[in-house]
Design goal:
It is built from eight helices and seven strands; from the N terminus they run H-E-E-H-H-E-H-E-H-H-E-H-E-H-E. It has 234 residues and is of the alpha/beta class. It has a single domain, classed as 3-Layer(aba) Sandwich (Rossmann fold), CATH 3.40.50.1110. The N terminus and C terminus are likely disordered.
Length: 234
Amino acid sequence: MIRRNLFTLILLALACGTQLNAAELQLNKGDHICYIGNTLADRMQHDGWLETLLQARFPEHELVFRNLGFSGDELTLRLRSSNFGSPDSWLEKAKADVIFAFFGYNESHAGAAGLDKFKQDLADQIKQMQAQKYNGESAPRIVIFSPIAHEDLGDRNLPDGSENNSRQLSSSRTSHAHLRNKSHRLCDNANIAILRESRSAVPNTRGRRVDMLTRPAPCRHSGRHDLLAASHCA
């Protein structure tokens, strides 16, 4: 269920036709796309649905994917075995042209007091990666994926996610504020889910199937598509 909802959220962000200060992601033939970040990225190695979506949309591009996500990763904390290698070294090995960066969930647990640090860490991380040429030729194109919303399973023995979602929205809004009017892109999963739920008679973060994508925008075959601040995509 969570995977289906996440698929729909990202598809919305990829396909939505509404624009507001949205940068475009240019995908080129032979691009190497690398995932980095927390558990949201890590779990995508078990099912290749996001790769499948992009390969199906751009079959002529012959895209290459490499998942470098690790559960628990934060912008400034990535625990690895001795001699594992630095994040930069692995992005260089993978010859990254495009980076899908999944951060913000673990950092959000610092609460409001941690938002300024998260914003600065995000800015520093982006600046550091853009100073590199992992593919040997040019700086990477970067997409920041916000955390997804906490799913309410309707079980009184489990939290309903409201407190957690409040933190996720703060994290997402901090990312959006930093990236606004910049050349980087934000796939704002938390805002999509929570905003759409507030407008729906059936909660989207409940443990049931809800078809949120009833009218996808037509695909653009040029290899360009919008990755929007998804709070404006609902």
